[in-house]
């Protein structure tokens, strides 16, 4: 069964510092990969997605992620953290084979804290 | 505005009292799904629907029912709620369950349910 692992349930960075949130997936076939952000008391908002078109994916709010097949990773980065980036981030995969149910498989989530 | 709406946003109820959480989307999406979010577990799929009158179980369907009589609506029914169903629930929709562009899912704002 496919799974997603997010390393670190809590990550704390200073404002202006690099943000790195880690995501590894298990799959024999490269799946579709997503990063979602959840601000307090809100639903999930799509940050970016990988659909095999390009390994480096740029998303909203200055975030980007790189798909590395050899490492089965899809880490999320942002060069300079802003206070407004404080939120919970979820990595998710959706199998790319045609018989899939459309289900997204989520990681456990990483809470990003940004210190002034 | 394209969106997924859920009602109610917050609900406190007692064990055994039947309840329904409504979900509606205005994007003419074929695929709809319900997830529950629990701390440390990420989001897990409860039920999904590929289209009108087509529904199936996700990973954690016990204690829940759904129906899809119209394309835009996908209510979640708890016939006899129990305290272990206390959770944050999200409805999501996407154009379809497959497709080469990844078909990202759009999420509602969430319903926080407490069962006493």
Features:
heterodimer; A: 116 residues; mainly beta; five-stranded antiparallel sheet; 11 strands; globular; B: 116 residues; seven-stranded mixed sheet; 49% strand
Could you explain how this protein is built, in words?
- The complex is a heterodimer of chains A (116) and B (116).
- By secondary structure, chain A is mostly beta strands.
- Helix content of chain A is 0%, strand content 53%.
- Chain A contains no helices and 11 strands.
- Chain A has strands at residues 3-7, 10-14, 19-26, 32-38, 44-50, 56-58, 64-68, 73-78, 87-94, 105-106, 110-115.
- Chain B has 116 residues and is an all-beta fold.
- Chain B is built from no helices and 11 strands.
- Chain B has strands at residues 4-7, 10-13, 19-25, 31-38, 42-51, 54-57, 65-66, 76-78, 87-94, 106-107, 111-115.
- The chains are: A mainly beta (116), B mainly beta (116).
- The interface between A and B is medium-sized, with 27 and 32 residues.
Count of helical regions of chain A: 0
Unreliable spans of chain A are none
Shape of chain B: globular
Distance between the termini of chain A: 41 Å
How would you sum up the major sheet of chain B?
Answer: 7 strands, mixed
Secondary structural class of chain B: mainly beta
Count of β-strands of chain A:
11
Overall residue-averaged pLDDT value of chain A: 89
Oligomeric form: heterodimer
Estimate the helix proportion of chain A, in percent: under 10%
Structural class label of chain A: mainly beta
Radius of gyration of chain A: 14 Å
Largest interface: A-B, 27 and 32 residues
Distance between the termini of chain B: 36 Å
* Overall spatial form of chain A: globular
Relative strand content of chain A: over 45%
């Amino acid at each position: 069964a496919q799974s997603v692992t997010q390393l670190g349930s809590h990550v704390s960075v200073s404002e202006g510092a690099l943000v790195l949130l880690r995501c590894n997936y298990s799959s024999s076939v490269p799946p579709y990969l997503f990063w979602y952000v959840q601000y307090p008391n809100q639903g999930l908002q799509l940050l970016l997605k990988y659909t095999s078109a390009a390994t480096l994916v740029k998303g909203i709010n200055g975030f980007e992620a790189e798909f590395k097949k050899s490492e089965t990773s899809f880490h999320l980065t942002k060069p300079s953290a802003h206070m407004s980036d404080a939120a919970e981030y979820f990595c998710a995969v959706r199998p790319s084979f045609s018989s899939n149910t459309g289900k997204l498989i989520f990681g456990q989530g990483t809470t990003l804290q940004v210190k002034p | 505005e394209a969106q997924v709406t859920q009602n109610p946003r917050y609900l406190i109820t007692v064990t055994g009292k039947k309840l329904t959480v409504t979900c509606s989307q205005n994007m003419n999406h074929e695929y709809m799904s319900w997830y529950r979010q629990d701390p440390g577990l990420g989001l897990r799929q409860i039920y999904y629907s590929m289209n009108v009158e087509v529904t199936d179980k996700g990973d954690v369907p016990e204690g829940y029912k759904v129906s899809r009589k119209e394309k835009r609506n996908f209510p979640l029914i708890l016939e006899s709620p129990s305290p272990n169903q206390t959770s944050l629930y999200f409805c999501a929709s996407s154009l379809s369950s497959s497709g080469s562009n990844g078909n990202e899912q759009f999420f509602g704002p969430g319903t926080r349910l407490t069962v006493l």
